[in-house]
Amino acid sequence: KQEVTQIPAALSVPEGENLVLNCSFTDSAIYNLQWFRQDPGKGLTSLLLIQSSQREQTSGRLNASLDKSSGRSTLYIAASQPGDSATYLCAVYSGGSNYKLTFGKGTLLTVNP
Amino acid sequence: DGGITQSPKYLFRKEGQNVTLSCEQNLNHDAMYWYRQDPGQGLRLIYYSQIVNDFQKGDIAEGYSVSREKKESFPLTVTSAQKNPTAFYLCASSINSYAGDGYTFGSGTRLTVV
């Protein structure tokens, strides 16, 4: 059974700092990994999607890496801003006979002005 | 713009009452999903549908039912058999079961038992 762990559970940083969020998964047989952002009381917004054959994806100040063999992904946020404050969720898609995403519990990020 | 629309945003249910949450997508996606989110527990899969007129139970299907009569629509009914229905419900879709383009989520429905 796939399990996804996100560390840390919460993170508070001053504005302008570069930061890394971590995601690990137990079964390396994945199709892709997706990072989401969730604001309080809102749905999930997709940030980055990394296919199993890729090593990283970039969008603006965000960079996500994937090391499938070790079961790890990181989300790097450059020059953090107060507007980046949200919960960040990592999810892996394993496919096979169990078509679903498996989510981590998220990292609650607070960027202080 | 294409996307997923969930309604209502807030829903209140009395004890013993069935309620239905709406999920509509105009992305032309084959696969649709319902997740439940509780504080400290992350997202858990309730039901999923790979194609019209077909659906399967997820990890926590007891007390819920779904239908998939149209490609665009995947409503979720929370029945009186669901003992603890208060939660945030999220609907999602993907282009197909292999989710090569990832998942798209709606804005959610918050259900409260009164």
Q: Report the C-alpha radius of gyration of chain A, rounded.
A: 14 Å
Largest sheet of chain B: 7 strands, mixed
What percentage of amino acids of chain A are in beta strands?
A: over 45%
- Count of helical stretches of chain B: 0
Largest contact between chains: A-B, 23 and 27 residues
| Helix-residue proportion of chain A | under 10%
Q: What is the average per-residue confidence, as pLDDT of chain A, rounded to a whole number?
A: 94
> Class by helix and strand content of chain B?
mainly beta
Structural class of chain A: mainly beta
Describe the SSE topology:
The complex is a heterodimer of chains A (113) and B (114).
Chain A: E1 4-7, E2 10-14, E3 19-25, E4 32-38, E5 44-51, E6 56-59, E7 62-67, E8 72-77, E9 86-93, E10 101-103, E11 107-112
Chain B: E1 4-7, E2 10-13, E3 19-25, E4 31-38, E5 42-51, E6 54-57, E7 64-66, E8 76-78, E9 87-94, E10 104-105, E11 109-113
Structure overview:
The complex is a heterodimer of chains A (113) and B (114). Chain A is an all-beta fold. Chain A has no helices and eleven strands. Chain A has strands at 4-7, 10-14, 19-25, 32-38, 44-51, 56-59, 62-67, 72-77, 86-93, 101-103, 107-112. In chain A, strands 2, 4, 5, 9, 10 and 11 form a six-stranded mixed beta sheet that branches. Chain B starts with a strand and ends with a strand. Chain B is an all-beta fold and 114 residues long. In chain B, the strands form two sheets. In chain B, strands 2, 4, 5, 6, 9, 10 and 11 form a seven-stranded mixed beta sheet that branches. In chain B, strands 1-3-8-7 form a four-stranded antiparallel beta sheet, with no helix packed on it. In chain B, a hairpin with a 2-residue loop joins strand 5 and strand 6. Helix content of chain B is 0%, strand content 51%. Chains A and B meet through strand 4, strand 5 and strand 9 of A and strand 5, strand 9 and strand 10 of B.
